[in-house]
Amino acid sequence: HQLSKLPVSEYNSFLEWLYDYEFNKLGLPKPDVVLYLSLPPELSVRLIEKRCTETGVKKDIHEKSMSHIENSYKAVLFSSQKLGWHKIDCSRGGEIRSVEDIHNEIIAYLGDALGL
C-alpha cells in the first residue's frame, strides 16, 4: 500500500530497495510462492460499505479515498507482475466469488506449485 503513494515512475526503484532491505539487509527468507488475492476497487468499496453498515465501524482514512483504493490496486497489479506473484481473481462477472470457490483455487494452485 506504500507503493501506491509514489509516482509510477518510482515503482521499480522502490521495489528494488524494498527487496534489498527485506531479503539482503534483514535476512528475511524469500518466499517460495506469493498469492495475490485480487479484487477490483469497486468490489472492494462494496465490501467496505457492507462492513461499515453491518458493524457500525467507520471507514479509515484510506478507505475514504477512492483515489487511494484505485492507486493501491494499480500498484499491486504492477508488483504482482514484476515480482512473479500468482494472481487469484476473487471476482467473476462483476460479483465476488464464494470463499469456498476461492479456497479451492488456492489449494489447487498450491498443490501444483509445491508438488503436494
Keywords for this entry:
single chain, 116 residues, mainly alpha, two-stranded parallel ribbon, two-stranded antiparallel ribbon, 4 strands
Show the helix and strand layout.
Layout: H1 11-25, E1 35-38, H2 41-55, H3 66-83, E2 86-89, E3 91-92, E4 95-96, H4 99-114
Order of the strands making up the biggest sheet = 1-2
Counted beta strands: 4
Main beta sheet, described?
2 strands, parallel
- Please estimate the helix content: 55-70%
Strand content: 5-15%
N-to-C order of helices and strands: HEHHEEEH
Number of domains: 1
**Radius of gyration from CA coordinates:** 16 Å
**Nearest-integer average pLDDT:** 94
List the total number of helices.
4
Going by helix content, strand content and strand pairing, the class is mainly alpha
Shape category: globular
Q: How far is the N terminus from the C terminus?
A: 32 Å
Uncertain spans: none
Can you give a write-up of this model?
This protein is mainly alpha-helical and 116 residues long. It has one domain. Helix content is 55%, strand content 10%. It contains four helices and four strands. The strands form two sheets. The protein has a two-stranded parallel sheet. Strands 3-4 form a two-stranded antiparallel ribbon. A hairpin with a 2-residue loop joins β3 and β4. The longest helix has 18 residues. The radius of gyration is 16 Å and the shape is globular. The model has no long low-confidence stretch (mean pLDDT 94).
